[in-house]
């Protein structure tokens, strides 16, 4: 057996013990017990950071904050923690940025698993996990998978083949997590999300996945290929993450394969920490592993269930790089109302993407109006004749570029009708938000710009000089 295989097997055995031990007990706990466990882990993290991380020693003036005072701590930006403050924030003082780069994306039994954020602008930010911390992340993944499948054993059974359609770059968390579960040869197929054509589709069809995992935009493309007769696969379960899932995608997946979509939420800085159960009423947060605080534009907490302008994230299991009240631009709504499935964890009940994706359009009074891309995307997802679309925002004006179904086979008259239909749908969607007439226009084009970033995720809004 290869050292890489033995390393993965050892990690998975340790993760399975944790998943069926303390993580299983947390699933059976009461709501009060979960919050008590979260507070206890938070208290240990705060003390650890205050004693071992020069970044937090300086930030907190040498004091150890109490868990109940978390909400009074100043939030931290990505630039502060992962940019200029990275080496100072690390609690293992033997680590340097250069040393961590040496571990970046490497398989095998290294003391640290080192990942990188997408780095769509500038250099990717580095996030290390000790081996013990990585194993807890794997255990959380096992627990999440059990919400929609038999878990690890189900994936290892003959016929439990999984195809991953996302980035395949080893520096990214999704790739490393997927590879950590590879034990049986031939049970996983990796397909880059940016290569869904020709040979890649033939490989996918020959593989015949029972489970399909990847970005929602990739799942949507594959479902359309199936509905239009160009792809013959029949996955039973579709797992998504990394982008916003629309109701139209769920319907398309059901129509194509009769499968359910199960979404998840995670970050490089936390790994995957929220999972959808079979009730499909939101994503259960691993509150024994993370604290999520949806906040408004002034970093004030929003009401339960209300969507915030950002979320402050605290990772309770990464002591190597403490991530405490770390600001992320995802607009989430979190509710602690009970779920019929019986799990005690609070749920993410709405995900509207990143704050930086919000459209700023001219309002009727001349001021800019903030509008979520979902407002425009929802009607276009179900509009007949639309194959794909892009949103371009610049100087208060939205340009919707639409690729028609059928492409060049459709004539000019059809394209003009489609353009008018899109204009009407967009105008109806924007009117309740106070957007001025003429602040959105439509182009019909057979080709769209490359819309995928460094990780092959679909960029919802392209900002340019239009």
Folded structure, characterized:
There is one protein chain. With 466 residues, this protein is of the alpha/beta class. It folds into two domains: 3-354, Rossmann fold; 358-463, GMP Synthetase, Chain A, domain 3 (2-Layer Sandwich), CATH 3.30.300.30. Helix content is 34%, strand content 23%. The chain contains 15 helices and 20 strands. The chain has helices spanning 3-19, 22-27, 31-52, 54-59, 78-84, 86-89, 97-103, 131-145, 152-156, 173-180, 198-207, 216-227, 247-257, 373-381, 412-430, and strands at 112-116, 126-130, 162-166, 188-192, 211-214, 237-240, 260-267, 271-276, 283-285, 290-295, 310-315, 326-328, 330-335, 347-354, 359-362, 368-371, 386-394, 397-404, 440-444, 461-463. A nine-stranded mixed beta sheet has the order 4-3-5-6-7-8-9-14-13, with helices on both faces. Helix 1 (3-19) crosses helix 8, helix 12 (216-227) crosses helix 13 (247-257) and helix 14 crosses helix 15. The longest helix has 22 residues, at 31-52. It is globular and about 70 Å long. Mean pLDDT is 86; it is low at 150-159.
What proportion of the residues form beta strands (DSSP E)? Answer: 15-25%
CATH architecture of the largest domain: 3-Layer(aba) Sandwich
Largest sheet: 9 strands, mixed
Level-1 CATH class name of the largest domain? Alpha Beta
Strand segment count: 20
The CATH homologous superfamily name of the largest domain equals ANL, N-terminal domain
Rg, rounded, reads 23 Å
| Tally of helical segments | 15
Mean pLDDT: 86
Query: Spatial order of the strands in the main sheet?
Result: 4-3-5-6-7-8-9-14-13
At the third CATH level, what is the topology name of the largest domain? Answer: Rossmann fold
Indicate the structural class. Answer: alpha/beta
> Based on CA inertia axes, which overall geometry fits?
globular
Residue windows where pLDDT falls under 50 for at least 5 positions: 150-159
Cα-to-Cα separation, first versus last residue:
57 Å
Number of domains: 2
Specify the helix fraction band.
25-40%
């Amino acid at each position: 057996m290869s050292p890489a295989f033995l390393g993965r097997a050892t990690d998975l055995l340790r993760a399975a013990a944790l998943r069926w031990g303390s993580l299983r007990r947390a699933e059976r706990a009461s709501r009060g017990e979960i919050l008590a466990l979260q507070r206890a882990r938070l208290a240990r993290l705060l003390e650890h950071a205050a004693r071992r991380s020069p970044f937090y020693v300086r930030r907190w003036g040498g004091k150890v904050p109490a868990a109940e005072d978390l909400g009074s701590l100043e939030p931290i930006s990505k630039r502060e923690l992962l940019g200029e403050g990275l080496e100072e924030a690390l609690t293992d003082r033997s680590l340097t940025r250069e040393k961590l780069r040496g571990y970046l994306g490497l398989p095998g039994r290294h003391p640290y698993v080192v990942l990188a954020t997408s780095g769509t602008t500038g250099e990717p930010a580095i996030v290390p996990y000790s081996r013990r911390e990585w194993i807890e992340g794997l255990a959380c993944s096992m627990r999440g998978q059990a919400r929609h499948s038999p878990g690890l054993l189900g994936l290892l059974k003959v016929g439990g083949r999984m195809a991953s359609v996302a980035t395949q770059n080893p520096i990214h968390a999704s790739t490393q997590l997927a590879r950590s579960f590879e034990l049986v040869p031939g049970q996983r197929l990796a397909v880059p999300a940016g290569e869904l054509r020709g040979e890649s589709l033939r490989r996918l069809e020959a593989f015949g996945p029972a489970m399909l995992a990847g970005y929602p935009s990739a799942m949507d493309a594959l479902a359309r290929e199936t509905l239009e007769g160009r792809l013959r696969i029949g996955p039973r379960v579709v797992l998504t993450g990394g982008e916003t899932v629309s109701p139209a995608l769920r319907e398309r997946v059901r129509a194509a394969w009769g499968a359910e979509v199960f979404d998840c939420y995670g970050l490089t800085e936390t790994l995957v920490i929220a999972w959808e159960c079979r009730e499909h009423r939101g994503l259960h947060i691993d509150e024994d592993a993370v604290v999520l605080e949806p906040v408004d534009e002034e970093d004030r907490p929003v009401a339960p269930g209300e969507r915030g302008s950002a979320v402050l994230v605290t990772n309770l299991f990464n002591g190597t790089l403490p991530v405490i009240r770390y600001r992320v631009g995802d607009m989430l709504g979190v509710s602690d109302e009970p779920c019929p499935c019986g799990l005690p964890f609070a749920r993410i009940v709405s995900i509207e993407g990143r704050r930086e994706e919000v459209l700023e359009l001219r309002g009727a009074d001349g001021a800019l109006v903030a509008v979520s891309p979902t407002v425009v995307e929802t009607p276009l997802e179900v509009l007949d004749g639309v194959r794909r679309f892009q949103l371009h925002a610049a100087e208060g004006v939205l340009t919707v570029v639409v690729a028609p179904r059928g492409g060049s086979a459709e004539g000019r008259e059809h394209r003009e009708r489609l353009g008018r239909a899109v204009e009407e749908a967009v105008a109806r969607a924007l009117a309740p938000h106070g957007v001025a007439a003429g602040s959105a226009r439509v182009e019909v084009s057979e080709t769209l710009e490359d819309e995928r970033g460094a990780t092959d995720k679909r960029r919802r809004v392209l900002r340019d000089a239009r």
